[in-house]
């Protein structure tokens, strides 16, 4: 695969600057510092400290302002080392020898072991979960510090089983880092429909399989009916009342909402629920009906309404007659977007394609932007970041991603079909296809302020390095200028396997 100038760039990260060690001076200052800190009795040569596994003194931090600062920092590291990663030169050398690749435990249960570090379980573990999250047990040596959980599997959500389908949600109490976005997977049996309702928040949908007929109307008397097929999107701006009905084969879809606290009171408003909680004389007056008409209204919110016996499915032309008869006409921005028909944008890096949508292409979805990403086997969604938090969902395949949280902290996650993640605003990350097949996922973005318009954006690390003066990038990374000059000034988006 022709990807000139990129392969060279990939070797950049292997060259790690190592600090110089001055053991003699260190020992002198250790003694002085230890006396000040607590007397001779506490002086233990570094090599003998029980929690120091390497027999080598720690490197002094070359960024420390003075030599005394460097010693203090070394002492601090020594004390803290039993709870923090080992930064000793030996550990650094081991880390340099470790490519960082996912540990292969074969058919044996994964263990909390990497190279010479860790030790096997003496009491066992939840092996099924461990197998899916090998990078929690055996993280790459580049992971560091405390990064909170950024992953949620829909398989850990409780399913709400209903007549005619089911739903399972991911809300802010499941994944607290996802403040901007909540989501749900929903399934409807053939012809079943999600009852009439509206939300305080906007709803974005992606059809995973089957056909969904949507109906809605806006605040300006206009209405809308359309069918969304597999791979198509819909969006209901907040407040817009809507229904979803599955076609003859049933349907499954992903729902995304532009607020993480989706289960909060005052978020979803269902018609049956409202009717059941309004005095009947008021209803009778409101609709001009005899109040006995409300005797059979469901008392509890049914959520999904199963198909009736002999349910008929109107052709879309028949269904649209109601819209055509409306003197106010159809809504000005269609609520369905035919993503399945949008041309793929091939990634310049050669590793796959993307389909991006935001208000510029899908006007009915001003508050949620998306990218549908397809990564070929072995490909890599390049190192990048966004102005806004990224919420993601694996459609198929297996991925590995590291969230770089700044402040020398990073955490690697393993993801597979049905898993979701969130990378808070500006976190650096990549998403690598580590499975035996294509990887597909969606990235979703919301602006920091609820209700604001959002444009899809991303910053590419490789492009950035290609766009600064080569001498600057070369000096920063301590690599030859020749390597830096090979980087492409074009965003690679997805890089093909080398
Ligand atoms: C840069 O790399 C060289 C080895 O290629 C090494 O000797 C030198 O110490 C490094 N410089 C820094 C600042 O890490
Ligand atoms: C999609 O639904 C059809 C039935 O309509 C089923 O045969 C097919 O296996 C489903 N696809 C996936 C990926 O499950
Ligand atoms: C409402 O319906 C009931 C039962 O059908 C009937 O007895 C009653 O007269 C009706 N009331 C009015 C105001 O039409
Ligand atoms: C999609 O690509 C085809 C050619 O592959 C082109 O004819 C068509 O105009 C493109 N559509 C859009 C909307 O760009």
UniProtKB/TrEMBL annotation:
GO terms for biological process: oxalate metabolic process. Pfam families: Cupin_1. Residues 102-124 are annotated as: Disordered. It comes from the Eukaryota. GO terms for molecular function: metal ion binding. Mn(2+) 2 binds at residues 384, 386, 390, 429. Its cofactor is Mn(2+). Binds 2 manganese ions per subunit. Residues 154-295, 337-485 form the Cupin type-1 domain. The active site is at 443 (proton donor). Mn(2+) 1 binds at residues 197, 199, 203, 242. InterPro entries: Bicupin_oxalate_deCO2ase/Oxase (IPR017774), Cupin_1 (IPR006045), GPI/OXD (IPR051610), RmlC-like_jellyroll (IPR014710), RmlC_Cupin_sf (IPR011051). Keywords: Manganese, Metal-binding. This is Bicupin oxalate decarboxylase/oxidase.
């Amino acid at each position: 695969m022709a990807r000139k100038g990129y392969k060279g760039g990939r070797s950049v990260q292997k060259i790690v600057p190592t600090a110089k060690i001055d053991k003699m001076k260190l020992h002198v200052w250790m003694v002085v510092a230890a006396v000040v800190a607590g007397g001779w009795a506490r002086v233990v040569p570094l090599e003998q400290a029980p929690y120091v596994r390497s027999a080598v003194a720690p490197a002094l931090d070359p960024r420390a302002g003075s030599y005394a600062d460097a010693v203090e920092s070394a002492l601090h590291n020594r004390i803290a080392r039993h709870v923090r990663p080992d930064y000793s030169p030996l550990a650094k050398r081991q880390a340099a020898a470790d490519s960082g690749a996912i540990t292969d435990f074969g058919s044996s249960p994964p263990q909390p072991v990497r190279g010479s570090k860790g030790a096997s379980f003496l009491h066992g573990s939840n092996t099924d979960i461990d197998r899916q999250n090998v990078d929690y047990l055996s993280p790459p040596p580049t992971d560091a510090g405390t990064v909170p959980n950024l992953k949620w599997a829909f398989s850990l959500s409780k399913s709400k089983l209903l007549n005619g389908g089911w739903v399972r949600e991911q809300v802010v109490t499941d994944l607290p880092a996802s403040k901007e976005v909540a989501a749900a997977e929903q399934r409807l049996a053939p012809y079943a429909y999600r009852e009439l309702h509206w939300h305080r928040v906007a709803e974005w949908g992606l059809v995973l399989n089957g056909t969904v007929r949507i109906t809605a109307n806006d605040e300006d008397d206009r209405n809308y009916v359309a069918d969304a097929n597999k791979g198509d999107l819909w969006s209901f701006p907040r407040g817009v009342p809507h229904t979803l009905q599955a076609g003859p084969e049933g349907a499954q879809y992903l729902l995304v909402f532009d607020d993480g606290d989706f289960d909060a009171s005052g978020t979803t408003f269902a018609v049956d629920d409202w009717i059941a909680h309004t005095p009947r004389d008021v209803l009778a007056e409101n609709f001009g009906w005899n109040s006995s008409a409300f005797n059979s209204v469901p008392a509890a919110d049914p959520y999904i309404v199963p198909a009736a016996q002999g349910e008929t499915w109107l052709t879309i032309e028949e269904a649209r007659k109601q819209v055509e008869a409306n003197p106010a006409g159809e809504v000005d921005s269609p609520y369905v977007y035919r993503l399945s028909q949008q041309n793929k944008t091939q990634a310049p890096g050669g590793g796959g394609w993307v389909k991006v949508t935001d208000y510029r292409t899908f006007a009915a979805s001003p508050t949620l932007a998306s990218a549908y990403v397809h990564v070929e086997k072995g490909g890599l969604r390049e190192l990048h970041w966004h102005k806004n938090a990224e919420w993601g969902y694996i459609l198929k395949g297996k991925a590995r991603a590291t969230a770089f949280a700044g402040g020398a902290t990073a955490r690697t996650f393993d993801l597979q079909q049905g898993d979701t993640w969130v990378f808070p605003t500006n976190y650096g990350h990549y998403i690598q296809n580590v499975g035996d097949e294509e990887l597909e996922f969606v990235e979703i973005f919301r602006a920091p302020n609820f209700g604001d318009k959002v444009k899809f954006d991303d910053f590419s690390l490789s492009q950035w390095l290609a766009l600064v003066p080569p001498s600057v990038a070369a000096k920063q990374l301590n690599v030859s200028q020749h390597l830096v000059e090979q980087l492409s000034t074009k965003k690679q988006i997805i890089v093909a396997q080398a």
